[in-house]
From TrEMBL:
Protein family (similarity comment): Belongs to the ETF alpha-subunit/FixB family.
Entries under PANTHER family matching the protein: ELECTRON TRANSFER FLAVOPROTEIN ALPHA, ELECTRON TRANSFER FLAVOPROTEIN SUBUNIT ALPHA, MITOCHONDRIAL
Subunit description: Heterodimer of an alpha and a beta subunit.
Functional description taken from the UniProt entry: The electron transfer flavoprotein serves as a specific electron acceptor for other dehydrogenases. It transfers the electrons to the main respiratory chain via ETF-ubiquinone oxidoreductase (ETF dehydrogenase).
Required cofactor(s): FAD
Protein name, entry field: Electron transfer flavoprotein subunit alpha
Organism for this UniProt entry: Pseudomonas turukhanskensis
Amino acid sequence: MTILVIAEHTNSALAPATLNTVAAAAKIGGDIHVLVAGSNAGAAAEAAAKIAGVSKVLVADNAAYANQLPENVAPLIADLGKSYSHILASATSNGKNILPRVAAALDVDQISEIISVESADTFKRPIYAGNAIATVQSSAAVKVITVRSTGFDPVAAEGGSAAVEAVSGPSDAGKSSFVGEELAKSDRPELTAAKIVVSGGRGMQNGDNFKHLYALADKLGAAVGASRAAVDAGFVPNDMQVGQTGKIVAPQLYIAVGISGAIQHLAGMKDSKVIVAINKDEEAPIFQVADYGLVADLFEAVPELEKLV
Ligand SMILES: Cc1cc2nc3c(=O)[nH]c(=O)nc-3n(C[C@H](O)[C@H](O)[C@H](O)COP(=O)(O)OP(=O)(O)OC[C@H]3O[C@@H](n4cnc5c(N)ncnc54)[C@H](O)[C@@H]3O)c2cc1C
């Protein structure tokens, strides 16, 4: 049994989610190969070769793969992936963009967002926004799987010494081209990788009031998230949204401020290790999942908390 893990990377560095995906592959068992498809991706390939438990790194270096356009990368993965028992990618925007095309090309069902591995052909995945967990058994010859990072602790980034092999595949499919990207720059940790997340909801009242959360987050070394209501109201950009239609986070500590705790929000954060809720309504559903709840006006509680940190 040999498993192909698709590296999530920026050509110059590996994304941390790759380590969680390798962890899922290790649970399945067997040899683990990592594919780095990119352009001038030597640094990412080198990093992949150091991941604990990886036996081989395949590097497909081609200008057509530079920006992970699914139209170009999926045919390469489908081509290489035919000889593997499993193809795994992180359930990030990239993974979710690329892997369904791979599954279609291989004529198999995709198994999406697994959170645990029961055996080589049986996996657990959340359904109904995390309100039920399905156990899925697959008889597909090649199992095409996206992995929810929060379900698997990352393997060590160092310690391995995998062989690196160059591979090639179909070039530019000519169906799409990369126009540009606007990357949000922040000195705070990335939301899905942060150990502490402070999130604000509609209770924040406006975007300016988020400064209270930024001040607290900076003292805690935390990322700042938001509910969809806060995003829809234009308080903060939508890359900060946590929840069913936002980002899935599972930090050591999640502080929900002025968030009621709708199921769609809980779907994105309820696996956090410790949940703290600050809400002036003691009946707010967020208190049902909170380990620590503070019934208080956030405009008093948050500045006070910040002073204490
Ligand atoms: C298909 C679908 C997908 C969705 N996806 C998401 C998603 O990904 N993420 C998400 O978050 N939501 C999502 N939603 C929306 C979700 O249903 C809720 O509407 C949303 O989460 C509510 O956000 P909120 O808790 O900030 O606002 P509200 O529900 O309005 O809650 C505001 C809270 O702030 C408290 N508050 C107000 N003032 C203060 C104060 N001064 N001090 C302390 N507390 C105060 C109130 O008591 C209240 O509990 C989705 C909905 C649908 C239908």
